[in-house]
Design brief:
Layout (H helix, E strand, L loop, with lengths): L6 H41 L25 H6 L15 H20 L3 H23 L4 H14 L8 H26 L6 H14 L3 H22 L12 H22 L2
């Protein structure tokens, strides 16, 4: 049988393959955007804790401007030159890890959410969470310069993101703030100053606003469960003692991420 010579027939035959190819390219583009955002987040994570204004990529040891091929830690490591050309200090492994991590997250969000307003805000939340993870783990700081704009962003998002209203965002934020303010108060009384800081409380306010009521309750429960499980492992393996500091920001972020992505499905699984 002779095949159809019409151009439209050839396009139709190649349709599924073309669509798959385009999908791969789009996900790859989302990954690349995530890597670039990760580079910015890395630089902010180095500059903001010192109360300095964000600068172009530079070595944190000697202050010299990085060459263009070291603006991204991933490129520096792939080029096998992960050292400052001026002073020889290494480019922190954190930099490529954050860039790859955000690239994977952005690609996953595109696959999961597609082109949508939710994708835009979730990508912004991811960048904020990554920056908070850097400063909390490395410096034990969750900075006001990050959380205050994030809280404003969370309220603005409540007018655009499906499933969250302005009143549920405010109620969710109030619940998160109140619960973790009391937790910080009790923890500091029981274990001394620093058991949980004001940054954690403001982060909980932000998370409450972006998850909204009633999903903020799920986020709180997940945060407690994840924090308890990780702390128990650290105690059993003697990696930490009861008096050692363990940053709580990562647990809050983990609970928030699970809630944002799988919200009511997780709640239904718990309530079976």
């Amino acid at each position: 049988m002779r095949g159809c010579g019409h151009a439209a027939c050839g396009f139709a035959e190649d349709g599924p393959g073309r669509r798959r190819l385009i999908a791969v390219w789009v996900v790859g583009a989302a990954f690349l955007v995530g890597v670039l955002v990760g580079g910015v987040v890395n630089q902010l994570g180095s500059d903001l804790p010192g109360h300095g204004a964000p600068k172009e990529p530079h070595c944190p040891y000697c202050g010299r401007r990085r060459p263009w091929w070291q603006w991204l830690g991933l490129i520096a490591y792939l080029s096998l030159r992960p050292h400052c050309p001026s002073c020889g200090a290494p480019v922190r492994i954190r930099r490529p890890l954050v860039e790859i991590g955000l690239g994977v997250v952005f690609g996953f969000l595109w696959i999961t959410l597609g082109p949508s307003i939710r994708l835009l805000f979730y990508a912004l939340y991811s960048a904020i969470f990554a920056l908070i993870l850097i400063t909390d783990i490395e410096r034990r700081l969750i900075l006001n310069v990050v959380t205050y704009p994030a809280i404003v962003l969370g309220f603005i998002a409540s007018f655009f993101v499906p499933g969250v209203t302005w009143w549920s965002a405010l109620l969710g934020g109030a619940i998160g703030l109140t619960f973790f303010f009391l937790a910080a108060l009790i923890g500091n009384l029981a274990y001394g100053s620093g058991a949980m800081g004001g940054g954690d409380v403001k982060l909980a306010l932000f998370i409450g606003m972006i998850t909204g009521y009633p999903l903020v309750i799920e986020a709180i429960v997940l945060t407690i469960l994840i924090g308890a499980a990780v702390s128990l492992v650290l105690l059993i393996t003697r990696a930490r003692s009861l008096t050692d500091y363990v940053p709580y920001g990562p647990f809050l972020i983990a609970g928030a991420a699970i809630t944002l992505l799988w919200g009511y499905g997780v709640a239904e699984w718990f309530l079976r």
